[in-house]
Amino acid sequence: MRQKEFLYGGDYNPEQWLDSPAILEKDIEYMKKAHINEVTLGTFAWSTIEPEEGLFKFDWLRQILDSLYENEINVILSTPSAARPKWLADAYPEVLRVNADRTKNIFGGRHNHCYTSPEYRRLVYRVDRKISEQFGNHPAVKLWHISNEFGGECHCPLCQVAFQQWLKKKYGAIQVLNKAWNTIFWSHDYLSFEQIESPSPKGEEMLHGLNLDWKRFVTDQTADFIAWEKKAIKEGGSELPTTTNMMYDYRGLNYHKIKDLIDVISWDNYPTWHKEAEAVTALDTAFQHDFMRSLLKKPFLLKESCPSATNWQSVSKLKAPGLLTAASLQAIAHGSDSVMYFQIRQSRGASEKFHGAVIDHYGKADTRVFKEVTELGKKLINLSEIVGTTTKSRVAIIHDSESRWAMEDSQGPRNKGLHYMDTVKKIYGGLRRQGLNVDILDMEYELDGYDIIFAPMLYMFRSGIESKIRAFVASGGIFIMTYWSGIVDENDLCHLGGTPHQLMDVFGLRSMELDALYDKDSNTGVSNGVFFNKDKQYECRNFCDLIKADTAKTLLTYESGFYKGYPAFVQNKYGKGTAYYVCADFEESFYIDLCQKLVEDKELDQIPITIPEGVSVTTRENERQVFLFIQNFGDESVNIKIPGEWKQLLGTGSIIHKYETMVFSKEKN
Ligand code: GLA
Ligand code: ZN
Q: What letter would DSSP give residue 93?
C-alpha cells in the first residue's frame, strides 16, 4: 500500500444508520470538512451482510463504497468475524466459547467464539470470500482489516484435541513432554497425549510448562485463524495487503508470532490521559508505539484512538484542548502513517452509545471535538512528506512475551509483584531522555546493528540468545542485563550449573542468591567513583541479587543488610565490548544517569539539544531527509534551540508550550 498522505479517519458503521440516508450523506460531508480520507467499514457488520444463513446482502455496502470513492475517501475493509449473528450461534452452538473453568458461554458479546471450530471457520471463510469477491477489487478499498482485536481463548473439546495434536507435533513422544514439563512433580506425569487437558482453575494450573505451552498454542491457533481468513480473501480474488488491530500491552497473544502474517502492523491506543501526569502517560504510550513499530521495523498504523473520552475506562475523562493533537502526532512521531479514530459517528444505543466520536449525537460540526479533529486533519496534510519514512534506532530493549509469560506465572521470588514493566519503563525513560529512538525486540531478533541493548529481567533464555549476546558484546556492543536473567530454558526448566546461564564469563560473575524485599524495605547502591561520581547513591527495592564477581569490576555496592559491601552494579569487559549487570531494582534516576553515561561514552550521534523533562524527541527518515519531532508533555513551557540547518515544518519559534509539537526537517549530507 503506497500512500501519499497520512491515513486520517477511523471506524465507521453505516449499518447502524441505513434507515437514515440523510445522516449517511451528512457524514460524508463532515468527513470532507474534517480532511478525513479513510474509513474502516464492516468490522461488526456480519448480520447486515448475511442476515440469514446463506443469504447475502451487499447492495448497501456497495452504495456506501461507491459514494466514499466518489468523495476520495479510502476504505479499509474489515472481515466481520469478530462478532457473529444470533442465527449462527443458534445453528452451530459449537462456535461459542468454553472458559477455563469449563463453563460454556451463551450467545452475546464479541470474540465469543472458538478459533478451532470447523463450523466457525467454514462460515467465516464463506462470508470473507464473498466480501472479497464483491469488493476486493473495488477502487476505494486499499487494505484488509482482519477481524478485530483478536484475543481470548477457548477450552472446548475441539480445542482440547487441537492442543493435544499441537503437543504431539512439538514433542513427538509423551516421555519427552513429561521431561520438559517436569511432570514427575506431584506424580502428574502423563501416559499419552490424549490425557492432557488445558490449564484450569478447577484442575491443573501449577504445571508451568503446561501453562506456557497452552499460551503458545493459543497464539498459534489464533495465527492459524488469521491465515485462514487471509486465504478466504485471496481465494475471493483480492491481492490487497492486510492488517489486524493489536492492543495495548496485550498479554494473551505473542504478537511476534503474528507479525509475519500481516503486511502492516496496526494498533488501538486508548491511554488514560489526565489520570497521571501527562508526561508519564506519554512515556507509557510512546513505549507501546515503539513496540508496535519494532514488530516489522517499518511504519505502522494508529488504527483506533478516541477523539474525546472513551466510555469503558473507570472515569470517562475528556481530553483537554490540544491533547488530541499531541497524542495523535505522538503516534506519527513514533512511526505511524495514520491517525484513526473509534469512531466516526457515535452509536445511538447499546454499549458504546457514550463512547466519544468525531460526530456526536448532536450531529453537527460546530463542536469542540470536531474542530480539533479538523485542525489536526489540516496539520497532517502539511506533513505529508513524512509518510513512509522509517525510524532508525541505535539502541534497543529486549522484551520477550514468552519469557514474561513464564516469569509472571512462576511462584517466587516475589509473588506480590515483580515490577517487570516498571523496570522496562525506567530503562525506556532513561534512553528517551537522551532523545534516542528505541526499538523493542524479542529474543528471536538478531542483535547486530545496535550499539546499546538492555535486557531487563530476561528470565528465560531461548532462541539462542546466549550466543547472540556473547557475539554482540564480543564485537563491541554494550549490553546491560539485570538480576533474574538466564534462569530457565524455553520449557521453564531451571538451568543447572549457575546463572546467568552460559554468560557468566561474559558478565564476569555468578548470581548466587536473589533477595526479595518487602514493600516497606529498601537498600542503596553506593558509588565508588569508578563509573558514577563518588557521591552518587541510588535507592533500590523489590530485588537485590547477591553476585560473586569474578572478572567484573564493581561500580556500586550495597549500603546495608547482611550483604552490605557486596557489588550492586558491575561492569565487565569482554572482547571488544562491555557487559553491565544491574543487581537490584534501582530507582529511575539510576537509569537516567546510566543512559546518559553510556551514550556519552559511546559517543552516539545525537540531535545536539538538551531535552528537558516531559519533552519528547524522535526522528523519522528516508534516504534524503531526516524529520525531527519535538513534543512537550510537561507542564512547563520550554525554550528549545534547534540548530539553524533544520527547517521548521510545524510550530513557530523556539518556545514550546504544553501539548505543542514542533516538526523540523533537514537534508541528509
Ligand atoms: C476497541 C474496539 C472497538 C471499540 C473500541 C472502544 O478498541 O476495537 O471496536 O469497541 O475499543 O474504545
Ligand atoms: Zn474451542
A: G
Q: Ligand 1 pocket by C-beta < 6 Å: which residues? A: 148-149, 268, 270, 304, 310, 342, 352, 355
Residues 136 and 41 in one domain: yes
H helix count then E strand count, the chain: 16, 25
CA-CA distance, 498 to 154, in Å (whole number)?
A: 39
Distance CA(668)–CA(547), nearest Å, equals: 47
Residue 29 has pLDDT above 70, yes or no: yes
Alpha carbon distance 197, 236 (integer Å) = 37
Q: Which residue, 1, 2, 4, is CA-closest to 381?
A: 4
Residue (of 381, 388, 429) closest to 591 by Cα position: 429
- How many domains does the chain fold into? 3
Among 15, 38, 50, 149, the active-site one is: 149
Instruction: Decide if 664 contacts 648 (C-beta within 8 A).
Output: yes
Paired residues of 38 in beta bridges = 9, 74
Percent of the chain with pLDDT strictly greater than 70:
100
Based on the domain organization, do 338 and 467 belong to the same domain?
no
Please give the residue range of the domain that contains residue 658: 615-667
pLDDT number for residue 46: 98
Distance 502 CA to ligand 1 centre (A): 45
Instruction: Examine the residue annotation and report whether 645 is marked as an active-site residue of this protein.
Output: no
Nearest CA to ligand 1 atom 7: 268
The closest alpha carbon to 132, from 84, 80, 95, 85, belongs to 80
Rounded to whole angstroms, the Cα distance separating 106 from 89 reads 8
* Domain identity same for 382 and 445: no
Measured CA to CA, the distance from residue 503 to residue 487 in angstroms comes to 11
- Ligand 1 centroid, distance to 342 Cα (angstroms): 7
The answer to whether residues 283 and 353 belong to one domain is: yes
The pLDDT value given to residue 261:
97
CA max distance for the chain: 77
Residues in the chain: 669
Read off the pTM. Answer: 0.98
555, three cell numbers = 561500580
| pLDDT tens readout for residues 70-81 | 999 999 999 999
CATH number at residue 83: 3.20.20.80
Cα angle for residues 623, 624, 627 (degrees, 5° grid): 100
Give the distance from CA 238 to its chain's centroid. 28
What's residue 608's pLDDT? 77
For the question of residue 304 being annotated catalytic, the response is: yes
Model confidence at 229, in pLDDT bands (50, 70, 90)?
very high
